[in-house]
Amino acid sequence: MSLAALAARSTPGNSNRDGWGAAFYQGSDVALFREPEAANDSPLVHLLETRGPNTTLAISHIRHATLGAVKLANTQPFVRELAGRTHLFAHNGHLPGIVSNQKFLLDRFRPVGETDSEHAFCALMSRMQDRWDKTSAAPSIEDRLGVVTAYAADMRELGPANFLYADGEILFAHGHRRIQTASGMIEPPGLFMLSRTCRHDGEPFMTDGLSLACGYQEVILIASVPLSNEPWQPLAEGEVVAVSLGKLVNNRPPRHLKRVQEAPVNAGQRHNAS
Predict the structure, then answer these.
(1) Which of 68, 152, 190, 274 has CB 3.0 to 4.6 Å from 175, enough for a Cys bridge?
(2) Checking DSSP bridges between strand 85-92 and strand 215-223, what pairing results, if any?
(3) Which of 202, 221, 197 is nearest to 213 (CA)?
(4) Tens digit of each residue's pLDDT (9 = 90 or more) over 41-55
(5) C-alpha angle 253/258/264, rounded to 5°?
(6) Strands (DSSP E) found in 36-161
(7) What is the pTM assigned to this prediction?
(8) Which has the closest alpha carbon to 132: 187, 81, 205, 202?
(9) At what angle do helices 141-156 and 116-133 cross, to 10 degrees?
């Protein structure tokens, strides 16, 4: 995660100036920072660039408001507790009709704000609740990945469904489609992934908004667009990956995709960027 790149996408003239958030896991809890204002104008972003907490898993999001007022309650990432763990979610896209859709009914988890993204997260948590409540131990990665994959397929029927979901142990990422700068169309890829090996023998340091300890580390970065000149790899449309401690631990290739007719959008209708 690069907080400098995050802030750069909210400079004047860009549409993603309606809020930002960054969450850093600290064991089973997270240090969460959110503001309903442009990241580029925030002293807090610049502080986190150099003094962010040490973490093995972080999620950030920058918002262009397409649904819901510009306020803290509508600012991602969203957080919920389940089975004594803090779960995180960030979504890039627009999901018309999700509130009335029978596949996204809510149970124990309810939105605080008005965004379709938060409703989507609450629906995912309702599905996950059954898995986590059945046992005192964490469900298997394969079991969790199965839930996320089926959920992502349902989500794609509504609209662009790029999302990051983490439960403190595993980060799940689903790539779909997003507006492409070159064409102005909503097309794949929706997410890119980069595997990086870091070697450093001195004191702990910060790089690209990541707090790194000394020694050998493996890092995986996932973003809406490549954040550097390195060889970022696009996720296939509908692909779900599971990442833990800087390593890809499992993935589900895309299943048959149900095509949804979508009109081109212009820059004034850009969707949220994770």
Answers:
(1) 190
(2) unpaired
(3) 202
(4) 888 988 888 788 888
(5) 105
(6) 58-62, 78-82, 85-92
(7) 0.85
(8) 81
(9) 150
